[in-house]
Amino acid sequence: MPSQLTVFGWHNVESTWCFPVTGSGVSGLERQLRQLRRYANVVPLEQALDALREGRPLPPRAVALCWDDGYHDNLRLAVPVLEKLGLPGTFFLVPGLLSRESRAWWEVAGWAFARSSRDRVEWRGMRLFTRGQAGRLCYGKASDVLRVMSADAREEALADLLDRLAPEGHPGDEDLFLDWNDAHELIRRGFSVGSHTMRHVTLAQESPEAQLADLRLSRERLEGELDVPIRTVAYPFGQSDAVSEATREATLAAGYAHGLTTEFGWNTGTTPAAHGRRVMLDPHIGFVATLAGRVAGRLRTDRDR
Hints:
CATH topology of the largest domain: TIM Barrel
Subcellular location: Secreted
Distance between the termini: 30 Å
GO biological process, one term: carbohydrate metabolic process
GO molecular function: hydrolase activity, acting on carbon-nitrogen (but not peptide) bonds
Domain NodB homology: 61-305
CATH superfamily of the largest domain: Glycoside hydrolase/deacetylase
CATH class of the largest domain: Alpha Beta
Number of strands: 10
Order of helices and strands: EHEHEHEHHEEHHHEHEHEEH
Protein name: Polysaccharide deacetylase
Number of helices: 11
Strand content: 5-15%
Structural class: alpha/beta
Largest sheet: 6 strands, parallel
Radius of gyration: 19 Å
């Protein structure tokens, strides 16, 4: 039977403005990782992807672990659990966030809804509520609009949204993310890093030239600052409207060996090098519930085609 690799991915460990966590995220994450260690063979991500490309066998039930965005609690909470369990992990970092040259718009928008001084606003033809569950749903609607914009258009649209929401206080979004010293600490403690683009752009919404420039600059900046080879990129958002054929071409042209989407599924030797699949998890939701929901969603999508 051909080798298969399941790549599990997370973002945060504890709650953020964008990613709320019910209960303790770190205990949920440890429970998930213990289950994986017991029932699967956890392997280093990049080595496993190389093996698939080269036709070398992987152990049965091979899985790899990774985290996107570079949240600070990855180092503070996830890394100690990985060390305790003796598991490898890869962290996909955004140089713009590490250097504080960019801001995490999804967290800023989440803060603006949570701390809005208004009960509802009108924005881009939508009526958006800010309180309770309706507020969370409307934040999701606004994020879906912002996500499929180019970086320049998003910056303008986000500024307009913030002006309408008139949030109180400060989001503290810079404190949510690692800096360069933290990235060095990940390397020192034996973990791998990869690229998550230079500014966390939605690649497919940029021109082919801009995609190539962003991917190349991110790799070069990470390699220059951390003195390690950067051969794998995880695409921000990673869905079909965030990854195009131009994205895959730019990934290889920018010097990466592997590109990972958030498309649900498993990887084999025939999976395109620049279009790997992952199973994205929340630390407080168990595997059975997550996988059942993703499979059901995939079946609904296939049925609607």
